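Figure 6 in text form: structure in, sequence out.
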């Protein structure tokens, strides 16, 4: 059977942009909340076009994710086979926290004002059917670096590997064309990070800081780098990629410096295994040392259904 998805997916593979807004909402208990949400999601493409037309060169896109707790009420469709709430992961020293969230809107373009306008129109449309859980505005930092100073996203798939890595296909036909999404909002201890020498930082990340050259893996059983712990293989030795569109965020005036992690995957277990290796360690006890300087404030899982499914919600 062909692995091609015969329906239209959302723009989960939209190009990297200079600005993004990550908007996480909860659905309220107001009488018409679900009806309003379904109508808004069904018309999200029209709303996006209304904003994108103002600058066709700005690469505007919005991806919608729906959480496990509201999937049945909002869609009325079979739940994707791997979709469940984000499970907290408790390591010996650090914990990946699980936080609420029913809807995710990943809004991005080359212009902050377009993202702002779309979010404003969206929230006007949703009204009291939703409550804002988290709103984070990200920006592209120099040559795609995070605020720790390293290039971020080098391991992303490219070309034909992108849809094969992020879009559900024949393994779950009801969810075909969709993608699992995990988000985490990290804040950095920049003061502590800056006490490390460049070589120590590079050993933690697994790449050189200046020119982004991949370092050799540590011997088996010794402390693994962030790069190594995020390399996932299945029982047959096949490596599985995810698509990251992480963005720095923060405010020097308030002392906030962070990275908003967002990962898209065809298989949710791949991201969850990454996080397990980071927080528990591989071998257990040797956690990802980046966690000594980056603390997660949120952790939520969503599923981005196909654009075809979104457009049909008004008629369900």
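Output sequence:
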């Amino acid at each position: 059977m062909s692995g091609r998805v015969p329906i239209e997916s959302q723009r989960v593979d939209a190009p990297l942009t200079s600005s993004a807004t990550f908007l996480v909402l909860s659905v309220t208990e107001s009488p018409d909340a679900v009806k309003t949400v379904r109508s808004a999601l069904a018309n999200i493409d029209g709303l996006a076009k209304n904003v994108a037309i103002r600058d066709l060169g700005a690469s505007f896109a919005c991806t919608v994710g729906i959480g496990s707790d509201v999937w049945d009420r909002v869609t009325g469709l079979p739940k994707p086979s791997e979709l469940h709430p984000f499970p907290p992961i408790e390591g010996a020293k650090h914990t990946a926290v699980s936080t609420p969230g029913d809807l995710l809107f990943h809004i991005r373009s080359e212009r902050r004002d377009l993202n702002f306008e779309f979010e404003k129109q969206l929230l006007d449309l949703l009204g009291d059917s939703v409550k804002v859980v988290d709103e984070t505005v990200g920006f592209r930092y120099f040559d795609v670096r995070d605020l720790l100073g390293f290039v971020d996203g080098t391991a992303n798939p490219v070309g034909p590997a992108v849809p094969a890595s992020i879009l559900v296909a024949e393994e779950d036909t009801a969810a075909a064309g969709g993608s699992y999404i995990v988000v985490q909002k990290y804040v950095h201890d920049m003061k502590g990070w800056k006490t490390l020498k460049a070589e120590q930082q590079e050993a933690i990340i697994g790449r050189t800081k200046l020119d982004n050259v991949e370092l050799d893996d540590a011997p088996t059983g010794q402390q693994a780098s962030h790069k190594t712990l995020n390399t996932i293989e299945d029982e047959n030795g096949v490596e599985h990629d995810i698509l990251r569109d992480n963005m720095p965020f923060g405010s020097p005036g308030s002392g906030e410096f962070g990275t908003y992690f967002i990962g898209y995957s065809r298989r949710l277990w791949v991201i969850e295994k990454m996080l397990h290796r980071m927080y528990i360690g591989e071998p257990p006890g040797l956690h990802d040392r980046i966690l000594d300087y980056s603390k997660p404030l949120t952790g939520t899982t969503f599923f981005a259904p196909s654009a075809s499914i979104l457009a049909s919600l008004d008629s369900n």
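Caption detail: Residues 19-315 form one domain.
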